[in-house]
Write a structure and sequence with these properties.
Number of strands: 3
Radius of gyration: 30 Å
Protein name: Kelch-like protein 18
CATH architecture of one domain: Alpha Horseshoe
Largest sheet: 3 strands, mixed
Helix content: 55-70%
Oligomer: single chain
CATH class of one domain: Mainly Alpha
CATH topology of one domain: Serine Threonine Protein Phosphatase 5, Tetratricopeptide repeat
Keywords: Kelch repeat, Repeat
Order of helices and strands: HHEEHHEHHHHHHHHHHHHHH
Shape: elongated
Strand content: under 5%
């Protein structure tokens, strides 16, 4: 009897035991078929208009790919009942690339398009596109791109890209500070850059000169920020002649508040560290 019960249990287990199988070929084939429908213009039920260009699409495909479109087409929004939806805030060529990715799963990224591509993906909540654009920017940081990418990364909170850009700016500060892009920094971005120990400058006067260029780029709007910027200049690393020259500079003399800031900073800034470039210079001098 016991043997009979055991046999019955084994039989019951074999009946209820299930296995799941994933047909990879089906997944790829399905995506390919969806792409073919798009290329052939079949079963399209919505037109998206971007900068005057019309992109016939499928609501189902868009909704499956993007939470943005899913909310648009499944909630009781006006767009869910329209045959043509005009999208604002997109570049038409970039949107075409986004659609290509949605229908094929393949993404093409280039330096001239990576930022608007990220912006579009951020709005459409396309995580894969955001991730790949962020990685591409991180790999593309160099002297000619670091300031522009730093500003972009700062806006979109791309911490890895932002960190890489700051390091590149610090390493190439003298050259970067002479660029037009440097003068487009916000006051907060400027102060963050010049407050770092890692700034590679041989003399602190180079930091002051960079600040002067930044202020003079838009004097009327930026002179008011000078008192908040000056404390980030390390006056203890300047000679008394350099400090006197700064106090006599037209920008400082024009703003009485800046003069007081300089005098106060000079009194309090006796223990500020040398910049990285200065430290390296001193180390080399000691070794000779």
């Amino acid at each position: 009897m016991a043997h009979s019960n055991s046999t019955q249990e084994i039989h019951d287990q074999s009946v209820v035991f299930r296995r799941s199988h994933i047909d990879v070929g089906y997944v790829c084939g399905f995506l390919g078929a969806v792409g073919d429908l798009q290329k052939e213009g079949e079963l399209q039920d919505i037109v998206l208009e971007v900068e005057g260009r019309r992109f016939p699409c499928h609501r189902l495909v868009l909704s499956a790919a993007s939470p943005y479109f899913r909310a648009m087409f499944t909630n009781d929004m006006a767009e869910s009942r329209q045959k043509t939806v005009v999208l604002q805030g997109f570049d038409a060529d970039v949107f075409e690339e986004i659609l290509s990715y949605i229908y094929s799963g393949t993404l093409h990224v280039s330096l001239d398009r990576v930022q608007p591509l990220y912006q579009a993906a951020d709005l459409l909540q396309l995580d894969f596109v955001r991730e790949k654009c962020s990685s591409y920017m991180a790999m593309s940081v160099e002297r000619s791109t670091c300031v522009d990418m730093y500003k972009f990364a700062d806006v979109f909170s791309l911490d890895v890209v932002r960190k890489d850009c700051l390091q590149c700016i610090h390493r190439n500060f003298v050259e970067v500070a002479c660029s037009e892009e440097f003068c487009s920094l916000s006051v907060d971005q400027l102060t963050e850059i010049i407050s770092h120990d890692e700034l590679e400058v041989k003399e602190e006067t180079g930091v002051w000169e960079a600040v002067v260029r930044w202020v003079q780029h838009s004097r009327e709007d930026r002179l008011q920020h000078l008192p908040s910027i000056l404390p980030h200049i390390r006056f203890n690393l300047l000679t008394s002649d350099d400090t006197a020259a700064i106090l006599e500079h037209p920008l400082v003399r024009e703003d009485p508040g800046s003069t007081e800031v300089v005098k106060n900073v000079v009194k309090e800034a006796s223990n500020q560290k040398p910049r990285l470039g200065m430290t390296m210079e001193m180390f080399c001098f000691q070794c000779t």
